[in-house]
Structure formats: C-alpha cells, structure tokens
Amino acid sequence: MTLTEAAAQLRAKKVSSLELTTQSLERSKLLQPKLNAFLTFTEQEALAAAKLADENFAKGFDLGPLQGIPVAVKDLYYTKGTRTTGGSKIFKDFVPTYDAAVVEKLKAAGAVLTGKLGMHELAFGITSNNAHYGPIRNAWDPTRIPGGSSGGSGVAVSAGMVFAAMGSDTGGSIRIPASYCGTAGIKPTYGLVSRYGTMPLGFTLDHMGPLAQTSRDCAAVLNAISGPDPRDSYSAKSSFPPIEIPATPDLTGLRIAFSEEFLLEGVDPEIRAMVQTAVRSFHEWGATTLELKLGWLRDVVAISHVILPAEAASVLEPHLSRRDDLGPEIRPLFEAGRLIPAVDYLQAQKLRRLYRAKAESLLWQHCDILIAPSTAITAPKIGEQTVTLASGQQLEVRTASTLLVRAFNVLGTPAHSVVGGFHSNGLPMSLQLIARPFADAKVLHAGARFEQETGHYRMKPPI
Amino acid sequence: MPLPPTPDWAKLTAATYPHLSEAEREALTKIWATNYQNFLPLKSLVTGELDPDSTFDPIASGSTGEQN
C-alpha cells in the first residue's frame, strides 16, 4: 500500500492511524536486526500522534494526506528532545532543543514520526556502511549497500517500514538510495524546502527531500514541507502552488531530452537499455523526445568537487580536533577540504553561475525534462570498491554512484528518481527525471505517468 | 610568467598535517587528484566581473547556528 492509498483507507475508515503506526513499528523492529535502518525509535510519541490523528479524523478535522501516516526522518533532522547523531560518534549524545523546519511541518500536517533513520556518517558518502552504528543493509539483498547517504531512508521505504522517509541530498544522497533500494525520491529545487534545523554538509548544495514509493507520494510530502522560511537564508522568498497530479498526467507536447554523451556513457548496459526504452515509451505517451550533447555536465561535476569539500570542512572544522572520533573514510575528506584555497572556492562558485546560464541556454531552452539513469550500476556488495560490468568494464563504486547525480546539486534543479525496471541480477534500476529550477511539478507528473504505465514500483523486496 | 596551477598539495598536506601516516597522506593525495584534475582548466573561464553564485543578502535573517 502506498502513502496515497493509505491516506484514502484512513478516510474511508478501513484502517486507523493507530493500526498503521503499530504495524509500522512492529515491522521496523522485526527487520532492524537484519537491515539496521533505524538509529532511534520514537514509539511513545508516535503512538500518541497516531491517537491524535484518529481523534481528528473522528472530529472531521483533516490536515491533508499526511494525517495519521507513519513516516521517519534521516538522523540529521533536529528533533526536539530526541537525539540527533548525524550518523556520527561526535554527535552521539546530541539532543536538540527544537525541531527542524521539516519536522515542524510534518507534525503540523499530522504525520506520525516513528523514529530516526541511519545514514552514512555526517552524510559524506554513499555506502551507509557506518563505522560507528554498523552497516545499513539493502532489503533486496542484505549483503549489498542501500546507497547513501540517506541509506536508512531508502531501506525503511523499500522494506515497507514507513510510507515515506525524509532524506537529504548534497551530491546524490536521496537519488542514490532511491536507486539502489527501488523507491522514488525527489531532490527538490534548492531553496524550496527549508534546511533550518538540519546538520549541514555543503550548505549551498544541501537539498532536503522525501523518499517514498511513488511520485504521487513524493508530491504529497513535498507539498507539506515546502515553503519560504526566513530561518534558512537560502530559502526561496515566495511560495509555490501545491503540486496536484491528475489521474493520468498528460504528457502531450512535453519535450524530453536524453544524452548518449556523458549521461549514458560508462553505464551498465541493462541500465542504458532501460533508459532508452523509457525514452521510447515517453514518446508513445505523447512527449517529444530529442538527443542533446551534454558533455559539459562533466565540468559541473568538477565544480562540485571543489565546493563540497570546502563547505564540509567549514561546517565541521570546530570538531576536527576530535579526528579519532571520525571514521577513517570521511576523515581525509574533511582534512582535504580545509586546504582548498579560498580563491578556488570562489572561482568554483563563479563557475557555478556560468554553468547555470549554460544550462538555461543549452538545456532548458530545448527541453522540459532531461532523462538519465540515477546511478550507473545497481547496488554493489558491502565493502566493494569496484564493480565489473557484464561488458568487462570496471567502474569505481563511488564514481558510478555519484557521477550522474552531482551536477544537479550544483545547478540546484529538481531531480526525481523513479523505479525504472529490474536488472537481470534481480535488483532495481532507477530513472532520473530532471527539470529547470522550480519545475518540480513537471518531473513528478512525468514520474507518476511512468509509474502508472509500468507498475515497476509495485515490486517489493523478498524480505 | 604563468602561475603554478595549484598549491603543491604534497607540501601543503605535510606542513598542515605533519603527523599523518603514509596511508593517510596517500588518501589525501588521491582526493586532490580527483578534485582538481578537471577543475583547473575551468578557471580560465572566470572573468573579473563574474560574481560568485552564493551572494551576500544584506536583509536575510537566517539561522545563527543555535546548536552543536
């Protein structure tokens, strides 16, 4: 059952929020020893929130589609009175005195928070193989990574523990776990969702967004959490209308672009074929399709390699004296970031402006949606550093996971992952839909139509 | 005379982090190789009048970092 379907069941009084929440907690706890998705359960608060939601339904109060729905948040969202570790030993006892803006909004929408989800340490990586809290495991195959850094969020949604989970995405950290776990997820336009009360990593690259089973579910969460917030200085200054997805989204006239150059290079052949099939399908459903030369996106990835470590080091520098409390994988990333010259960081931010203008003229003038894989490979094994494709080509796991997603953090565009199909190895493959800034509705509409036509999102892990 | 392309990362690393093990030093060197190999050529595209993307907003409030 999806979030949208659960919302309908609640309103039809076929199920109560207390029942959904109890089932959610029981399933999460049952699977915790096997998958390690959660860091903290907030059971008492969740049950109280569920009872309140049921009372509200009984009184005829309806706060919208999230009312009474069990959800969870990545452990970098501040939760008042509940520890927020960021997946780090440094913050293992940190208990915030206020809620993140997103948590405030989820609660105001009547959502039921069942707990805090595990993640890659300080969100600076893609495996979620956490040195302090143990590896998070993929529900499709527990010997494999779920992706990261929002690994617990991907697992919790794919294994049916919650209907939606909040993640964050600085260089793919929503879309990579969505890809490896077989869920939907959206990195909204930068500024659409407040970052207030979240642990930053790269403050001009951090995007807060949901993972859920479908585009419609993502839209429901996004509608609840988006909006201006003066407490986040990079927050959009104006509101945008809620995203409403019609029963069958009409794609007539929508211009959908793909790029063999860069976005389909060095990609697992079955994933490339999945994207090519999707392009043909969108054409059959009424869209216009075209190929663009987008090799310049490689430059945008290079820009992110300067901005991110510099910003991350500036965030963590007050704690870098505790280097032994940092995992060996992320320690050098922060230490390297400290050495980036200020001039290079500023040049990178200037180049970012240049490439945003380039994206406008070379990309968005020609298409409404850019289509690409979310990742070049399916979920690798825990501990694997390289993977070998059927073609014999060897790919480095970190690069194959991040290469196709990082540019869109620099450009600040919405980027939406949906389940694109299944590989012959049985693992999910993911389609990424990207649009110009603040065209979040377009990618969600296209994603919803794709899901409706293919039904891939209905496939569940054998757990 | 053309500028040297970057700081000498090996020297900078050794000066800043003198107590790193050889393996840790190698990890940093690998990061530099990744980060800068494609970035340096792009710097020639930057002109003097181009502002950085994250501009200072004199009326923004924003968080003052209450925690941690």
Largest sheet of chain B: none
Structural class of chain A: alpha/beta
- For the terminal residues of chain B, how far apart are their CA atoms? 46 Å
The number of strands of chain B is 0
Which residue ranges of chain B are poorly predicted, with pLDDT under 50 across at least 5 consecutive positions?
A: none
**Would you tell me the overall average pLDDT of chain A?**
97
Main beta sheet strand tally, sense and closure of chain A: 11 strands, mixed
The two chains with the largest interface, and their residue counts, are: A-B, 43 and 35 residues
Radius of gyration of chain B: 18 Å
Description:
The complex is a heterodimer of chains A (463) and B (68). Chain A is built from 14 helices and 15 strands. Chain A is of the alpha/beta class. Chain A has a single domain (3-458), classed as Amidase signature (AS) enzymes, CATH 3.90.1300.10. The longest helix of chain A is centred in the last third of the chain and has 23 residues, at 342-364. Chain B has helices at 9-16, 22-37. In chain B, helix 1 (9-16) packs across helix 2. The radius of gyration of chain B is 18 Å and the shape is flat. Chain A binds chain B through residues 78, 91, 94, 96-98, 196-197, 199, 204, 230-234, 298-299, 301-303, 305-306, 309, 331-333, 335-336, 338-341, 344, 346-354, 356, and chain B through 6-7, 9, 12-13, 16-17, 24, 27-28, 31-32, 34-39, 42-43, 45-46, 50-54, 57, 60-63, 66-68.
Features:
heterodimer, A: 463 residues, alpha/beta, Amidase signature (AS) enzymes, 11-stranded mixed sheet, two-stranded antiparallel sheet, 14 helices, 37% helix, globular, B: 68 residues, mainly alpha
Brief summary:
The complex is a heterodimer of chains A (463) and B (68). With 463 residues, chain A is α/β, with parallel strands linked by helices.
